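Lab notebook, design round three. We kept the backbone fixed and only want residue identities now. Task for the bench partner: fill in a sequence for the structure below.
Input structure tokens:
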């Protein structure tokens, strides 16, 4: 299902609630912009299309989200998510060995992004016992709708800051490590940023990985869970679900977004019987209150598909990235949680019958 055509970021990275400054055009047939023809992949008379010419990398194209009767489980749908187009660069080896997409025309590039054949990747690493079982090839996709105050990957906020990579080139890297995955019980993890920010690309990579017999995982906040089709989730073996808060006001303070989409996605995963590892970042003075931890437990405890919960202590290792990006970092004076606080929080979860680390 096509929910939006990717387009350049406006500098804030936060999707507007409505295309106030855009000009509505008929939702079918060809449209000529700057001399180049553009066609809607799936014209829909009941869904207006907007073009905004403010972007410096080409026209901004926005489609409202599809109706709920699209085969996707669940009722909640967030606002349309506006995706940036990965910037074109000359061909070569970016992201440490994964070939960058070569030069394309704008038309070719838009078509490739729309089909999920090209995505924006920040980096990748080979790690053990961090992002799922065994040794994992963790690929960090660029772009995220949340602005977590404690994010240690702030340089993944913007899709057009990443490296444009073709699915086929990323799959070559996955194939290279199949022996390692078999020996360690590992596999591929798509992280970010937010992998569901590039759901079509992520789905194509996951499908290819499964065809190679590779265990797959996604690390997601769940905020864009409504954009994960049932088909995409069928190619996911494990979901690392980041439940950042259990209280809506604390979630809003910590991320700038609403909690309910994550709750809805968690319940949908339970209905599907999809294995989930929950992650909770413990930030003193922000997410550490007894009430907030109990609220997280209220969400997690009823979910029989959750096989573990990890309490991750806040750290300051991402502070320099915020400064380098010229972004205000509000947790400069926050210290990592003490051993006593960590044990108290883990004890709260264990008391609710949740396997906790």
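Proposed sequence:
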């Amino acid at each position: 299902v096509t929910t939006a055509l990717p387009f350049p970021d406006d500098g804030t990275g936060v999707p507007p609630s409505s295309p106030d400054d855009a000009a509505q055009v008929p939702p079918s047939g060809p449209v000529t912009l700057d001399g180049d023809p553009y066609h809607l992949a799936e014209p829909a008379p009941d869904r207006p299309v907007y073009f905004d010419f403010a972007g410096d990398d080409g026209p901004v194209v926005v489609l409202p989200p599809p109706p709920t009767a699209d085969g996707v489980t669940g009722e909640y749908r967030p606002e349309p998510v506006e995706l940036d187009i990965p910037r074109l660069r000359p061909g070569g080896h970016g992201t440490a060995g994964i070939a960058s997409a070569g030069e394309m025309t704008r038309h070719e590039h838009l078509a490739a992004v729309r089909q999920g054949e090209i995505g924006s990747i920040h980096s990748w690493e080979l790690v053990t016992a961090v992002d799922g079982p065994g040794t994992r090839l963790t690929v960090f996709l660029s772009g995220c709708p949340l602005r977590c105050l404690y994010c240690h990957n702030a340089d993944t906020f913007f899709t057009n800051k990443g490296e444009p990579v073709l699915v086929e080139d990323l799959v070559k890297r996955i194939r290279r490590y199949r022996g390692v995955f078999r020996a360690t019980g590992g596999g591929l993890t798509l992280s970010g940023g937010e992998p569901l920010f590039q759901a079509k690309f992520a789905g194509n990579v996951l499908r290819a990985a499964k065809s190679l017999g590779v265990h797959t995982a996604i690390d997601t906040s769940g905020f864009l869970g409504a954009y994960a089709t049932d088909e995409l989730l069928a190619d996911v073996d494990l979901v690392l679900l980041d439940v950042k808060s259990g209280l809506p006001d604390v979630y809003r303070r910590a991320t700038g977004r609403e909690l309910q989409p994550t709750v809805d996605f968690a319940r949908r995963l339970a209905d599907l019987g999809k294995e989930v590892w929950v992650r909770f970042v413990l930030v003193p003075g922000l997410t550490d209150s007894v009430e907030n931890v109990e609220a997280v437990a209220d969400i997690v405890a009823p979910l029989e598909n959750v096989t573990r919960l990890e309490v991750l202590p806040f750290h300051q290792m991402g502070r320099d990235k915020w400064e380098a990006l010229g972004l205000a970092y509000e947790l400069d004076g926050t210290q990592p949680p003490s051993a006593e606080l960590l044990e108290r929080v883990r004890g709260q979860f264990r008391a609710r019958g949740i396997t906790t680390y």
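Keep this in mind before ordering anything: Confidence is low (pLDDT under 50) at residues 1-94.
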